[in-house]
Amino acid sequence: MEKLLTRPIQYLKGIGPRRAKSFDQAGIHTIEDLLYYFPRRYEDRTSLKRISELIEGQVQTIKAEVMAQGQRRAFRRGGLNIIEVVVADESGKIFCVWFNQPYLAQYFKVGTQLILYGKVERYGNRLQMSAPEFEIILDNNGDSLNTGRIVPVYSLPSLISQRVMRQVIKRALDEYVTSVNDLLPYDLRMRHNLLNVAKSLINIHFPENYEAQKQAYERLSFEEFFLFQIPLALRKLKKKEKAGIAHKAEGRLLDKFISTLTFTLTNSQQKVINEIKADMALPRPMQRLLQGDVGSGKTVVATAACLMCIQGRYQAAFMAPTEILAKQHYNKISSEFIAHSSLTKQVKIGLLTGSLDKKKKEKIYRQIKEGEIDLIIGTHALLTETVEFKKLGLVVIDEQHKFGVGQRALLPQKGVTPDVLIMTATPIPRTLAITLYGDLDVSVITELPPGRLPVRTLDFSQGQATKAYEIALKELAEGSQVYIIYPVIEESFALDIAGAKKMYGQLKQGLFKEYRLGLIHGRLKEEEQDEVMRKFKEKKVDLLVATTVLEVGIDIPNATCMIIEHAERFGLSQLHQLRGRVGRGTKDSFCLLISSAKTQEAKERMEAMVKYSDGFHIAEEDLKIRGPGEFFGSRQHGLTELRVGNPFTQMQLLRNARDEAIKLVNLDGRFIQRQNMLIKEKLLQRFPEYETLMLVG
Ligand code: ADP
Ligand code: MG
To answer: What is the Å distance from ligand 1's center to 296 Cα?
Structure first.
């Protein structure tokens, strides 16, 4: 039966080679693809607005008849072609205009019935829609797919109209929907009150009413979450069975390290260290995500984990996304170790970055391979094939969101089931983390070291920029250091934004001429970057003009003020990361946003920055503003593949789906039962990369 669904869509009446090609280009190849190609939105055409009832400023749908049309050229606007169409219903008339699409004129013959969807505006006493979406109605009474109901609106493949799309989908539903196998077993559906698959597919495309649409959406989201959670549940199960290294997690090196720290660990740090300790001591590979806001002190926790590994004579690898950060970790950990002679004697630390010369690299490669280096800190340079370990026991990945999934997976492969600790300062709510990274265990640092004051965040318009600069000058006068961040290195006239390089020159001659300025950006040579960072750290530079090379990790507690120019050009999580560079000491700190937010979304971002100082809140806001696809980006596996479900708005549904996935995997991890064989088939089709996971029983 199922094979019917993998038929090419040309089997459908109305689809010849030309249309099939359009669909192909849109990724719709089979009947099944078509059935699962869901509407972008819906239009309620059960009760269309009368023109006289339209409300200005709102996006609305009307049905009207073409009364007249004309075309003109606006010479003042570069010869723009304008089509104007007057349409009317029995209550009034409205103008519709389209720009530079002269070919549209053919559709607007006098007497044509149209459905129009767009924003209504008023110019003088003239009501107008600019470039509305439109559809031609052929037969007022017989056109049941396109009028008198809730109508689906699709993102269209080229050359395909809404009406053709609806017709084709309707045919596919009529002929094939009964052949779709329901992946969700009956009892599961009953437990969660979910529609069957046929009814869901019908109602997601042609809902009887909004309630039915909602139920269909829920059911299809559940199915998607469920499928997505199964591989995670399987991985978790397999991991439990897999042999790993039982580290000597308790030991002298760790105790020495903690006792010689110049500060006391927070309770939260202590708690996560214990979680890691317990996990590393077990003879199973640890897969742990460590979440903690910027400045919460994740690096010491990671260092402690490295020592748990090293005191049993295994090697640890610590990877960071930028050279600046890798070097900072190297320097900081080295200096922390100096406090105790047994640490310097027994732990040999190495640094591997791309900019080392060939000879130095080769020496490091050799030392790693022969086990001379116990703790290797580095960038993605650690991933090169030439890097081989003698006895890799632990992999730490800092700022994991900066690495691709593929990259993250590479480093552990250089050992035999080493433990893995990945760290992130772009936290997501715990429940969401558990469900999305279902195969990972999660540890969370929930507090900042004592004495930290929230960074005072203020939002200035371009016109008020001098106020921000006055605050910076005051901080400098008190002996604190300042960052000024620009979104680009060179200015761009087209975008009207200032660049770091030129502004550095101007600021140095102007406002800040009494101070010592430094400039850092990604196009400087490594040695130059090092030099600037060293000077800033040693307080030989007071003010650092920078780009986002400073975004993650940098830790200089004497810097108390950051100005972010063109702040509207940064994402919310990115702004929060940048802000995390200040407020790392006990002094009052400032984050001063200078923005010209034009879109609503940009305004929301600035407001969220001012309102929230806590990274979990920020992440939640960011998720709300951007939605999960954008938030997680293409780098986070799986999420971007979610086509229907939204983990943020459907958290409970996601949790239920996860529970069911775990249940299934525990009961029938080899997919032997008949109904589960269907699931397996579907999984292999959708996530072929999990084949071994599913086949190796
Ligand atoms: P992040 O979690 O952003 O990576 P870091 O590990 O860079 O934060 O730590 C930020 C700063 O706080 C560092 O200078 C670190 O030495 C310091 N720090 C870490 N833990 C504590 C603590 N318990 N008390 C005081 N300072 C701490
Ligand atoms: Mg860090």
So the answer is: 6
Alpha-carbon span 424 to 413, nearest angstrom: 21
CA dist 282 and 297 (Å) reads 25
Nearest ligand for residue 584 CA: 1
Contact yes or no for 239/284 (Cβ under 8 A): yes
Task: List, for residues 120-155, the tens digit of each pLDDT value.
Answer: 999 888 999 998 988 888 765 667 787 778 999 998
Mean pLDDT is highest, among 319-328, 386-395, 417-426, 524-533, for 386-395
Placement of tokens 């809730």 in the chain: 150
197-241 pLDDT per residue, tens = 999 999 999 999 999 999 999 999 999 889 888 888 887 787 777
- Tens-digit pLDDT profile for residues 163-204: 899 999 999 999 999 999 999 999 999 999 999 999 999 999
In DSSP notation, 38-82 reads: --SEEEE-SSPBPGGG--TTSEEEEEEEEEEEEEEEEGGGTTEEE
Q: What is the pLDDT of residue 431?
A: 63
- Residue 642 or 451, more confident: 451
What lies within 8 Å, CB to CB, of 3 at 6+ separation is: none
- Mean pLDDT, residues 379-401: 93
- Residue nearest to ligand 1 atom 15, measured at CA: 297
Do residues 611 and 664 make contact, with C-beta atoms less than 8 angstroms apart?
no
**591 DSSP β-pair partners:** 457, 562
Distance (angstroms) between ligand 2 centre and the Cα of 381 equals 19
Domains of the chain, CATH where assigned:
1-46+150-180 (1.10.150), 55-148 (2.40.50.140), 252-282+297-424 (3.40.50.300), 456-612 (3.40.50.300)
Helix/strand/coil for 484? strand
Residue for token pair 């999990």:
690
pLDDT-based confidence at residue 640 (cuts at 50, 70, 90): very low
Distance CA 202, CA 166 (A): 12
Of 288, 241, 283, 245, nearest in space to 696 by CA: 241
Ligand 2 centre distance from Cα of residue 261 (Å): 17
User: For residue 321, which ligand has an atom nearest its CA?
Assistant: 2
448 lines ligand 1 (CB under 6 A): no
H or E, element range at 560: strand 559-565
Report pLDDT for 696: 46
pLDDT digits (tens, 9 = 90+) for 281-299: 999 899 898 988 888 999 9
User: Do residues 403 and 378 make contact, with C-beta atoms less than 8 angstroms apart?
Assistant: no
Q: Is 427 in the pocket of ligand 1 (CB under 6 A)?
A: no
**Which DSSP letter does residue 30 get?**
B
Amino acid residing at 246: A
User: Is the CB–ligand 1 distance for residue 299 below 6 Å?
Assistant: yes
Dihedral of the alpha carbons of 180, 183, 188, 190, in degrees to the nearest 10: -10
Among 296, 319, 577, 581, which is best to mutate for testing ligand 1, by the most ligand atoms less than 8 A from CB? 296
Is pLDDT above 50 for 633? no
Tokens of 270: 């202590």
pLDDT recorded at residue 36: 92
Residue 269 CA, ligand 1 centroid: distance in Å: 10
Instruction: Tell me the C-alpha distance between 423 and 114, whole Å.
Output: 55
Residue with tokens 């052929």: 138
| Residue 637 CB-half CA count within 13 A | 18
Rounded to the nearest 10 degrees, the angle between the axes of helix 615-632 and helix 600-611 is: 150
* Mean pLDDT taken over the chain: 88
- C-beta 312 within 6 A of ligand 1: no
Residue 159, both tokens: 């050359």
Smallest CA separation from ligand 1 atom 16, residue = 297
